[in-house]
């Protein structure tokens, strides 16, 4: 009969029966009782009352019974620390048992009992086991050191266990070496400054020797340790690569990926002129291909890692395109990942094969997959110039199918092809316009509007087409509204006499009838440009746009180098560094590839450069349609316009008002005067001469020495704000209050469109100007801002009195946090409350207590 019988009993009074059985003189009955106790513990019953009785059963020669008792102890020692000490003598005795299995079991259990009172008794038995004659005991003791270090790091250092652990790297048994490396690596991760794994060529040689003989998980520990080593020159790097290469043929996929990580890292130090470099490239391909014959879940992990490898060194798999062709029974997550890698490997040599495959995918039934396939055709056109015509022809064929979602995706990618190859494929616009009525997705509608606005002079009825979109302006999504506004302004600048009414209509809708701040801001900017200097408006809105070379889903080079160092881990699946998703990642050190020696070549392969582009050319960014204010004019903002300052009068000297007073009537006056709440009177250009600070809101008081300024503290951690970290402090300088902010982008995407808002508070603190961040915040970039504050905001009693609730918005989301501001910022330099407050602190306290609200000023 199996042990399942122990899990079936649920009768009352069981604890008393078990207690009697545990104290029985018969060994078999005692063993049966302990099994019942463990079964009860496993299903969640509280059997801690039997602790003394179970501990008494430790005094036995039966290994099975001893294991069961130790299992019970590990579970309940934390809740019964005083009782657990009773077992210490038995542990110490078992550590000297003639049976190595019992010695190892004792030291392992002592390491798992996380009770401070017991750790001091563990030191002496652990010291003996680390030098035990049996390798099984030594390898168990090595892991125990890491567990003890986690409980009491200082004790481990004082007892000299770390030095003993380092000595075990030279042990004759490979499994002892592997466990010693694993323990040291874990301790080093939690204490990055300790420099425990100070490897040298001699210790590396010992690790490589042990690599061939230890178990697969031991090999992974050793390979991960090797990946953290920095060879002194390219010869040593080559020697290590030669000895690691046989691991590529291992049956365990984790061993293969760890070996790939070591080779990818050390290849950086090898010259591309070496014969061995080419040999290594050829050896890396077969194991990666083999990983794709595993189960779908393993395939996905392998594909995510291959995605990184292909971005770094596409030459490794450039001849293996067929392996990434999608199979009919692949899960969708595998299909999408394969599609991504196919595009990365696409080149002039294989583009015909890739396009035929992609066209086939576009007729599948899975909508998500079909969309991605159509987008992939557009990406191929951008990447391989020679294939652009064939790609456009393929997309037109797909549009003719009249399948709604296929047509919409095709129009989105054709817009990008127009950006890449201007004045080359405009003949297809007529075909696109035929499908105008079938577009119902915001991205496709926005793309079509962009095409109509960009090529308005070639489309006879462009004004009618755009007017048809304008009819349901308020029902459109934000990105369509923004694109429509820009397209009609373009059309007006190209055909001013025919479209004056249309542009007046859209500017009125954007500025007066809309409650979207992004749309209003863009409308007012266009309004101001058209009214004051039409020449400048043309130069800005119709500026020549930079060509795009490849899509922006390529990982940023420094992040890619870091992720290559994490191949085979979760970071390589998420495509994020560990610091982005590991909570409390104080011990994580940012890794990077070693510098290339003996060659001035770029780490990127020549094949990685987009076809038709010079090798040094960096891929330009294709902004996403959802990026509302990151690029103010959405693909229309050229270089900063140099010219005379914009006058504050309605029309600049010598300039002609193309709008002919049309906008003046919209504002309800005879001359163009912006409302002061939206457009301050000072419209002089910023020092940069561009549109960065069109309304001159960034001017402020210079920072001089004043009252005490506390150091910045983290107000909003990145983990709670999708990668945005905000640190700050408050200061008062020459009578002006300011909030000094430090914004850090720890996400993997660009952040823009920043704005800030305060909740009502006790002293009416409010921003005196918008949050000015003139350039989008790139990943890992930090920007420092001083936000001027005033005390004319709404007032409400807060608890505590100096509590301030803040909302910060960007293109990703809106984030909330609260902080306490020091009361001294409200005092003038002579120590009194600022005159603006109008009453004393005592008066304030009385009013807050009595009324609950204080009206400031």
Structure description:
- The chain has 857 residues and is of the alpha+beta class.
- Among the domains are: 247 residues, Leucine-rich Repeat Variant, CATH 1.25.10; 105 residues; 137 residues, Immunoglobulin-like (Sandwich), CATH 2.60.40.1150.
- 46% of the residues lie in helices and 6% in strands.
- The chain is built from 34 helices and eight strands.
- The strands form two sheets. Strands 1-2-3-6-5 form a five-stranded antiparallel beta sheet, with no helix packed on it. A three-stranded antiparallel beta sheet has the order 4-7-8, with no helix packed on it.
- Strand 1 and strand 2 form a beta hairpin.
- The longest helix is centred in the first third of the chain and has 17 residues.
- The termini are far apart.
List the helices and strands and how they pair.
Elements: H1 14-22, H2 27-42, H3 51-56, H4 63-76, H5 81-84, H6 88-94, H7 100-112, H8 116-130, H9 135-151, H10 153-158, H11 161-167, H12 174-190, H13 201-211, H14 216-227, H15 234-244, H16 253-266, H17 275-290, H18 296-312, H19 332-345, H20 351-361, H21 367-383, H22 388-400, H23 404-420, H24 429-434, H25 442-454, H26 462-470, H27 478-494, H28 500-511, H29 517-532, H30 534-541, H31 557-564, H32 570-574, H33 662-667, E1 713-716, E2 724-733, E3 736-745, E4 755-758, E5 766-767, E6 782-790, E7 803-809, E8 814-820, H34 841-851
Antiparallel strand pairs: 1-2, 2-3, 3-6, 4-7, 5-6, 7-8
Helix pairs in contact: 1-2, 2-4, 4-7, 7-8, 7-9, 8-9, 9-12, 12-13, 12-14, 13-14, 14-16, 15-16, 16-17, 18-19, 18-31, 19-21, 20-21, 21-22, 21-23, 22-23, 23-25, 25-27, 26-27, 27-28, 27-29, 27-30, 28-29, 29-30
Region (Disordered): 586-624
Biased composition (Low complexity): 598-611
Membrane topology: Peripheral membrane protein
């Amino acid at each position: 009969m199996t042990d399942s019988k122990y899990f079936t009993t649920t009768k009352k009074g069981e604890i008393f029966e078990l207690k009697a059985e545990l104290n029985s003189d018969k060994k078999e009955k005692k063993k049966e009782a302990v099994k019942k106790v463990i079964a009860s513990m496993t299903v969640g019953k509280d059997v801690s009352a039997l602790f003394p009785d179970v501990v008494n059963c430790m005094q036995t020669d039966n290994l099975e019974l001893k294991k069961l008792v130790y299992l019970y102890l590990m579970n309940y020692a934390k809740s019964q620390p005083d009782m657990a000490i009773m077992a210490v003598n038995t542990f110490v005795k078992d550590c000297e048992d003639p049976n190595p299995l019992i010695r190892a079991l004792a030291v392992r259990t002592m390491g798992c009992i996380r009770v401070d009172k017991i750790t001091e008794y563990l030191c002496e038995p652990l010291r003996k086991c680390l030098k035990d004659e049996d390798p099984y005991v030594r390898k168990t003791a090595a892991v125990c050191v890491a567990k003890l270090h986690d409980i009491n790091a200082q004790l481990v250092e004082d007892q000299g266990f770390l030095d003993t652990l380092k000595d075990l790297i030279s042990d004759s048994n490979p499994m002892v070496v592997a466990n010693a490396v694993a323990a040291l690596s874990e301790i080093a991760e939690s204490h990055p400054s300790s420099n425990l794994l100070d490897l040298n060529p001699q210790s590396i040689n010992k690790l490589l020797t042990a690599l061939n003989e230890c178990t697969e998980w031991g090999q992974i520990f050793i390979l991960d340790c090797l990946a953290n080593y920095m060879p002194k020159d390219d010869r040593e790097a080559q020697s290590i690569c030669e000895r690691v290469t046989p691991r590529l043929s291992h049956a365990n996929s984790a061993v293969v990926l760890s070996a790939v990580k070591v080779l990818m890292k050390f290849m950086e130090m090898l010259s591309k002129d070496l014969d061995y470099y080419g040999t290594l490239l050829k050896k890396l391909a077969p194991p990666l291909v083999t990983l794709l014959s595993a189960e779908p879940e393993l395939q996905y992990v392998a594909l995510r890692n291959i995605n990184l490898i292909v971005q770094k060194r596409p030459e490794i798999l450039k001849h293996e395109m067929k392996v990434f062709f999608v199979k009919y029974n692949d899960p969708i997550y595998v299909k999408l990942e394969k599609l991504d890698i196919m595009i990365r490997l696409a080149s002039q040599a294989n583009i015909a094969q890739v396009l035929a495959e992609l066209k086939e995918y576009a007729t599948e039934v899975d909508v998500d997959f079909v969309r991605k396939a159509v987008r992939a055709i557009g990406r191929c056109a951008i990447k391989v110039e020679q294939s652009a015509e064939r790609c456009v022809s393929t997309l037109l064929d797909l549009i003719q199918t009249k399948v709604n979602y296929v047509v919409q995706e095709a129009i989105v990618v054709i817009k990008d092809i127009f950006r890449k190859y201007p004045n080359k494929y405009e003949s297809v616009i007529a075909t696109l316009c035929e499908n105008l009525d079938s577009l119902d997705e915001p991205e496709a509608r926005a793309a079509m509007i962009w095409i109509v606005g960009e090529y308005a002079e070639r489309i006879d009825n462009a004004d009618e087409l755009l007017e048809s979109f304008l009819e349901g302006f308020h029902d459109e999504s934000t990105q369509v509204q923004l694109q429509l506004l820009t397209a009609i302004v373009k059309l007006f600048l190209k055909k001013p006499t025919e479209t004056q009414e249309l542009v007046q209509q859209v500017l009125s809708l954007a500025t007066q009838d809309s409650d979207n701040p992004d749309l209003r801001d863009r409308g007012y900017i266009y309004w101001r440009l058209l009214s004051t200097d039409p020449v400048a408006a043309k130069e800005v809105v119709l500026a020549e746009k930079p060509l795009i070379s490849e899509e922006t889903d390529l990982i940023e080079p420094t992040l890619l180098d870091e992720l290559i160092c994490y191949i085979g881990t979760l970071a390589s699946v998420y495509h994020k560094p560990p610091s982005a998703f590991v909570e409390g990642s104080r011990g994580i050190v940012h890794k990077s590839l070693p510098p290339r020696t003996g060659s001035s070549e770029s780490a990127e392969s020549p094949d990685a450069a987009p076809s038709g582009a010079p090798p040094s050319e960096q891929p330009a960014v294709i902004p996403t349609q959802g990026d509302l204010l990151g690029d103010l004019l959405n693909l229309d903002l050229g270089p900063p316009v140099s010219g005379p300052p914009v006058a504050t009068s309605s029309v600049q000297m010598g300039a002609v008002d193309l709008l002919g007073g049309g906008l003046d009537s919209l504002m309800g006056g005879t001359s163009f005067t912006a409302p002061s709440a939206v457009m301050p009177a000072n419209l002089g250009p910023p020092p940069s001469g561009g549109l960065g600070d069109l309304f001159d809101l960034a001017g402020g008081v210079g920072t001089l020495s004043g009252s005490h300024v506390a150091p910045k503290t983290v107000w909003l951690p990145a983990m709670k704000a999708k990668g945005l970290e905000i640190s700050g402090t408050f200061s008062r300088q020459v009578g002006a209050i300011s909030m000094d902010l430090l914004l850090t982008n720890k996400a993997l995407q660009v952040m823009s469109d920043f704005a800030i808002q305060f909740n009502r508070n006790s002293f009416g603190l409010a921003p005196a100007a918008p949050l000015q961040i003139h350039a989008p915040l790139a990943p890992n970039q930090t920007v420092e801002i001083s936000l001027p504050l005033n005390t004319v905001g709404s007032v409400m009693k807060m608890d505590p009195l100096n509590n301030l609730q803040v909302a910060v918005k960007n293109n990703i989301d809106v984030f909330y946090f609260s902080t306490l501001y020091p009361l001294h910022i409200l005092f003038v330099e002579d120590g009194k409350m600022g005159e603006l407050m109008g009453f004393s602190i005592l008066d304030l306290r009385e009013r807050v207590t009595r009324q609950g609200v204080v009206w400031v000023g």
